[in-house]
């Protein structure tokens, strides 16, 4: 980067944006991150992530945080289990022995975010900055306006603000589309004591039970928690069509049970025995390929650039690699324009390939023979 240090603003304090900020700061380049949350603890950060060697772990290495990550990670969480609708375990993949060269150890999203936030200079993240609009003011400079009435100018605005990005419309008119699959999230606490049968069925990592376009995905998190996604291939407004108020736990439970007639009681416990309510999470994805023309002073990373269904397990990993790659390009190139061009030349084809794979994974898992297709993938069968 040249002697005139650019003003860099990252919108969104997710894994990709935070990795980008961390790598930039390690090399003496100032950056500010703006996030709409009021504080780091304002909302639940979601489930668990497996960090892949060539993407997520590579980004953590570039950030100088790989050793810290490994100290927090759960190698045992790599266990992958497939269960039939009758409750029988048909596949039980044991993780490699803490081999990070091949393994994909798990970490809770909240712990990963905490690690990344703790690595940044104090004051890097501006909390409570809900972006309302981005305005070009000339020569590649953009003005960010926030809901609290404040504003700031930047020579580079990095949209790391997720599925419904406020930055993306300045680059492309693409909008996320419903994939046809909805996850209804619920959870269990103190599982080994209070829900030992569900804990045993889930195992130490992830359990999937798939059949006839629906199923269960249960993830072991740290702290004795299991996060469960009850998955349906259904209309986006399935609950309205069924006359179900999502705030009515009993009504949601009854509606979900009606979708799993004939399934084993071992699995139906993931619906009937829940400690929490239900959160409806329709899965969306951007069109593939999602591309845009180079625009001075703007770029995207993570879900803002390549939102894909989470079933493939690559979204967060790719977002982190995006952040590290963009930071490295800004460090190595003379101008912001050169850096963004080099970054997008790698980003766009890579993300298109990953998004195609993610779409295929969802179609396979939630098709009529989902269990067989997932089992074939896990065992390498053709």
Automatic annotation (TrEMBL):
One of its GO terms (cellular component) is cytoplasm. SUPFAM superfamilies: FAD/NAD(P)-binding domain. Its main location: cytoplasm. InterPro entries: FAD-bd, FAD/NAD-bd_sf, TetX_monooxygenase. It is found in: Cytoplasm. One of its GO terms (molecular function) is FAD binding. It is an enzyme of class 1 (oxidoreductase). FAD binds at residues 50, 109, 303. Keywords: Cytoplasm, FAD, Flavoprotein, Monooxygenase, NADP, Nucleotide-binding, Oxidoreductase. Its EC number is 1.14.13.-. It catalyses: a tetracycline + NADPH + O2 + H(+) = an 11a-hydroxytetracycline + NADP(+) + H2O. Pfam families: FAD_binding_3 (PF01494). NADPH binds at residue 43. The keyword Nucleotide-binding applies. HAMAP family: TetX_monooxygenase. An FAD-requiring monooxygenase active on some tetracycline antibiotic derivatives, which leads to their inactivation. Hydroxylates carbon 11a of tetracycline and some analogs. This is Flavin-dependent monooxygenase. It comes from Streptomyces spectabilis.
